[in-house]
Write a structure and sequence with these properties.
Strand content: under 5%
Distance between the termini: 30 Å
Pfam families: V-ATPase_H_N (PF03224)
GO molecular function: proton-transporting ATPase activity, rotational mechanism
Helix content: over 70%
InterPro entries: ARM-like, ARM-type_fold, ATPase_V1-cplx_hsu
Order of helices and strands: HHHHHHHHHH
Shape: globular
Low-confidence stretches: 16-24, 158-166
Number of helices: 10
Number of strands: 0
Number of domains: 2
Radius of gyration: 18 Å
Largest sheet: none
Protein name: V-type proton ATPase subunit H-like protein
Mean pLDDT: 79
């Protein structure tokens, strides 16, 4: 019982740490909402051959899908979606665009946590790990990208483990 009591005391004494963590998460989500409202010029990426025809067609179509229709769209285009998002994370260099793509991925996971499996399945089919696409983002100088990348990896690992262990 003393072990439980000492843990409880540590948690209670770290209340300020908890408040700081909640505030930081709230700020991250607010910034994510602001980023999601931005309009990325996919046409310029496409015309400068920074993204492929397939990625350009997919991302412009994806942005037109309403939240109400997204589940059906994701189900129909699951592997294409995973490929496009992961390819763009590794080929696009502008921080603002990487932030936007990470927000799209986060939105997918928030709507349905099991969508993480789409990305794991895609990577398994291509004999690569999902982490290969996210770890390089830690090397970027943008704090938002680093934090979003950590959140996505945390969500992906926790969801994947909970779905595969039981």
């Amino acid at each position: 019982m003393t072990d439980v009591s000492s843990r409880l005391e540590r948690v209670m004494s770290n209340e300020s740490d908890i408040k700081v963590a909640v505030a930081a998460t709230s700020l991250l989500h607010q910034k994510a909402n602001d980023i999601r409202q931005k309009c990325i010029s996919w046409r310029s990426y496409h015309s400068s051959q920074m993204i492929s025809d397939r990625d350009f067609k997919f991302i412009t179509l994806y942005e037109k899908v309403t939240a109400e229709n997204r589940a059906e769209f994701v189900q129909q285009h699951a592997m294409e979606m995973a490929e496009t998002f992961l390819t763009m994370l590794s080929t696009v260099s502008k921080d603002e665009t990487i932030q936007y793509i990470l927000c799209l991925i986060d939105e997918l996971f928030l709507e349905d946590r099991n969508r993480v499996e789409i990305f794991h399945t895609y990577c398994s089919k291509h004999k690569e790990t999902l982490w290969k696409n996210f770890f390089p983002l830690l090397l970027r100088n943008d704090e938002f990208i680093q934090n979003m990348r950590l959140l996505e990896c945390q969500k992906s690992t926790r969801i994947w483990r909970s779905n595969t262990l039981f």
